[in-house]
Amino acid sequence: MTASRLDPAALCRAVSSPKHGAVASFVGTVRAVHAGRRVKAVSYDCFVPLAEKELARIAADAEKRWPVRVAVAHRTGRLSVGTASVAIAAGSGHRAEAFEACRFVIEEIKRRVPVWKKEHYFKGDGRWLAGCALHRTRR
Amino acid sequence: MKRKIELYGRLRDAGLGSSVAVELPKAATARQAMSALKSAFGAKAPLLAGCALATGDEVLSPSDELPDGRLAVLPPVCGG
After folding, report:
1. How far apart, in whole angstroms, are the C-alpha atoms of residue A109 and residue A53?
2. Is B3 helix (H, G, I), strand (E, B) or coil?
């Protein structure tokens, strides 16, 4: 979790290896329109200690499931339209598991990581977006 | 004993600041803490629907005893 600008290329470099024939990446960015409303910015709130642990656990889960190396970073703070809010990179021997690992990581982030988005609009009050309820996961 | 519980997401707009202090018995459970939070929220208690209590390490089940350290109440999440 970081308040600084994301660097997707640095994540790709971090998961690159001479043994890898593929590096897939996913970058999520702030959308200009949501549910018909013009968005000016999105604020990302976060419970940092648990969010960082969950990101690490998700990356480890992906690395257990596929022969990949994963790097992931997520923004906090108020971001303007077009700014990267999340970046994921997966390096692997072949493309299929790199794509699958990227998809897995972003879907798990949306389900498990304690982050909340408040959209700010050009007209009217901002709004916290709905999400997925958290539940205890026994380890 | 008083326990501080941190508020996140939509709960920050409840007018209670970034945390609330609730009175709890020793060895209280997460369920008891949620009940105390509902009282502290008063008319804003519906904001707690779907929320979970968590430490900096994990989400708690209602029957879990509250450990020492940071405690937070977390609304449904929507990262990415």
Report:
1. 12
2. strand
| Domain limits, chain A | 8-128
Say whether domain A8-128 belongs to CATH 3.90.1170.40: yes
Q: What is the pLDDT of residue A137?
A: 76
What is the topology classification, in CATH, of domain B2-74? Ubiquitin-like (UB roll) (3.10.20)
B interface test, pick of A79, A128, A137 with most B CB neighbours within 10 Å: A128
Query: Tokens 């897939």, residue?
Result: A24
CA torsion through residues B14, B16, B18, B21, sign: negative
Q: Looking at CA atoms only, how far is residue A95 from chain B in angstroms?
A: 23
Question: What pLDDT digit, counting tens, does each position of A18-47 carry?
Answer: 999 999 999 999 999 999 999 999 999 999
pTM value is: 0.95
Express as a percent the part of chain A with pLDDT over 70.
99
- Tell the burial category of A16 from Cβ atoms under 10 Å away from its Cβ (0-12, 13-18, 19+): middle
Domain boundaries, chain B: 2-74
Reply yes or no on whether the pLDDT at B71 is more than 70: yes
Q: Which chain B residue has its CA at the smallest distance from A137's CA?
A: B59
Cβ contacts of B69 on chain A, cutoff 8 Å: none
For chain B, what percent of residues have pLDDT higher than 90?
96
Nearest-Cα residue of chain A relative to residue B77: A131
Is the CB of A50 inside 8 Å of chain B's CB atoms?
yes
pLDDT for A105 equals 98
